[in-house]
Amino acid sequence: MDQAKAADLLGAHVSTRGGVQTGPARGKAIGATAIQVFTKTPNQWREPVLSAESRTAFRRECDRCKIASIVAHDSYLINLASPDPVLAARSAESFAAELRRCHLLGIAAVVSHPGNFIEEREAGLLRNAAAITRCLQEVPGDVMVLLETTAGSGTALGTTFEELAALREAVGESVRHRIAFCADTCHLYSAGYDVVREYDAVWRRWEEVIGLRHLRCLHLNDSKTPFGSRRDRHELVAEGSLGAEPFRRIMRDPRFLTVMKVIETPKGDDDVTFDRRMLRRLRAYGRAAR
Question: Looking at the domain 3-287, which fold is it?
Answer without folding.
Answer: TIM Barrel (3.20.20)
